[in-house]
Design brief:
Blueprint (H helix, E strand, L loop, with lengths): L10 H33 L3 H29 L1 H20 L4 H29 L2 H33 L2 H5 L1 H14 L15 H20 L3 H23 L8 H5 L1 H17 L1 H13 L4 H8 L1 H17 L4 H19 L8 H28 L6 H30 L10 H27 L8
Length: 462
């Protein structure tokens, strides 16, 4: 296996491959959100099962992201990255031709596995190739690609759903995936395996995965007793995982980083809170625009584009700024702006104008752009090279755990207020109540995250 020291790969090639894959997966996430009402009608499923079409992907990705981050450090980040793109592309084919909601959810689980392999190694590859003084800029471009995918997803997802059914959303992933695979094979040279020779922690990975499954399934079963028991079991499993990882020589996740590295720990927790407070906004607003405002999938997608367009425009700027200014300052300002956007969105009613909704989404997108790139730069810049895979996995894990928690909050609110029914006209008022309650909870979460973000230490030396 080639080492990065013996053969320096092209930075531009690495950036193109990382940015391309960073576009593909969020494009799928955001386009599927717009297609959910159409999927609900075709399969005649209730609101809770509908939410699992989004949640199953997140849960799978969260389970596998940490283990594949470590496997990338041991066996080569490019190798894991390549297999991830292949799996994601194949699972898109099966999702497109799903004959039932169960098969679609299963395909989404496999998509989540492939996505975990991509995100566990993509950021680590960028951090391996680019020097510290250029890393923020490169990460900013990669994050901008993520938000480009989020920007295009609602519009093209709505367009495809309206004219070619929701299945076409998954079909378009196939040629995109093939192009990225070819780029990896012919343009991305070299390999990165800074933890080569270490043993893989199978036991810790299994405990971690089972704990996350118990937590998420428990949330969906609340307020039943079985749901409470599963949640307790999940937290107990994570506590056991934390204790075991501190003792073994080659942990799948070096939890000691949280105790010895303040910048790393607080940046990760800030990311967790930020994603917890923002991810479900697109899911909820898509339903609000189609159910309450009566928009078509295509028109709803146009409105939803307001948020990720702002993210795409300002993420590279924020990344470059974080190379010179303390990331915690920029990220904390971004989180404060995000909180303001969430508060304004929580005030939406049935008669709120589309321009007002789009303006709130733009404010939210601007705040998130200022937060994300600098926060990621702080995480990757606070660890040694041999921990890049773990740090990259941490970035993705906090994002996915936050997204999963965000969907868990929405699922719980739906279970408590709407129940296991389809969201028909008679349930529109209670849906609006659920929508506003979720946004209020997210606003409180994000406001608390501002102080956590400010409390991290300095990344740049004076």
């Amino acid at each position: 296996m080639k080492n990065a020291d013996s053969e320096s790969p092209s930075k531009i090639s690495a950036l193109i491959v990382a940015a391309s894959s960073s576009f593909l997966t969020p494009f799928t996430i955001s386009s599927v959100n717009v297609a959910l009402p159409s999927i609900e009608r075709e399969f005649a499923i209730n609101a809770l099962l509908l939410s699992w079409i989004a949640t199953s992907y997140l849960l799978s990705a969260a389970i596998f992201l940490v283990p594949f981050g470590k496997l990338g450090d041991i066996y080569g980040r490019k190798r894991i990255f390549r297999y991830g793109i292949i799996i994601f592309t194949l699972s898109s084919f099966f999702a497109a031709f799903s004959g039932s909601a169960g098969m679609l959810i299963f395909s989404r689980v496999i998509q989540g596995l492939g996505s975990a392999m991509i995100f566990a190694t993509g950021i680590a590859i960028i951090s391996s190739v680019f020097p510290a003084e250029e890393r923020g800029k490169a990460l900013g471009i990669t994050v901008a690609a993520v938000y480009s995918g989020l920007s295009c997803g609602p519009f093209f997802g709505g367009l495809l759903t309206q004219h070619f059914t929701w299945r076409s959303i998954f079909i378009v992933n196939i040629p995109l995936g093939i192009i990225i695979i070819l780029l990896i094979l012919f343009k991305l040279k070299g390999e990165w395996a800074d933890a080569k020779g270490e043993k893989f922690d199978v036991g810790g990975s299994v405990i971690y995965g089972i704990s996350l499954i118990a937590l998420m399934c428990g949330v969906t079963l609340l307020p039943d007793l079985s749901g409470s028991l599963l949640i307790i079991s999940g937290f107990s499993g994570l506590f056991l995982f934390f204790k075991l990882e501190r003792k073994i020589r080659y942990p799948v996740f070096d939890v000691n980083l949280f105790g010895t590295n303040r910048v790393f720990a607080f940046s990760c927790f800030a990311a967790l809170i930020n994603y917890s407070a923002t991810f479900s906004v697109t899911f909820l607003t898509s339903l609000f625009l189609q159910y309450i405002k009566g928009l078509s999938p295509q028109d709803a997608g146009m409105v939803l584009m307001a948020q990720p367009v702002m993210m795409t425009l300002f993420s590279p700027v924020a990344g470059r700024l974080s190379d010179r200014i303390e990331p915690r300052i920029i990220a904390s300002i971004g989180m404060a702006i995000t909180a303001c956007g969430l508060i304004l969105l929580s005030m939406m009613r049935e008669n709120t104008g589309l321009v007002t909704i789009a303006a709130c989404l733009m404010l939210l997108g601007f705040g998130f752009a200022l937060f994300s790139s600098p926060n990621m730069n702080a995480i990757m810049g606070s660890v040694e090279k041999r921990f890049y895979g773990i740090a990259s996995g941490s970035v993705g894990t906090m994002r996915l755990l936050g997204q999963m928690l965000s969907m868990g909050i929405v699922t719980l609110i739906f279970a408590m207020l709407i129940g296991r029914v389809q969201i028909t006209n008679q349930y529109h008022p209670v849906f609006v109540t659920s929508f506003r309650l979720a946004l209020i909870i997210f606003s409180v979460l994000c406001t608390g995250g501002i102080f956590l973000s400010l409390s991290r230490g300095k990344l740049h030396e004076n």
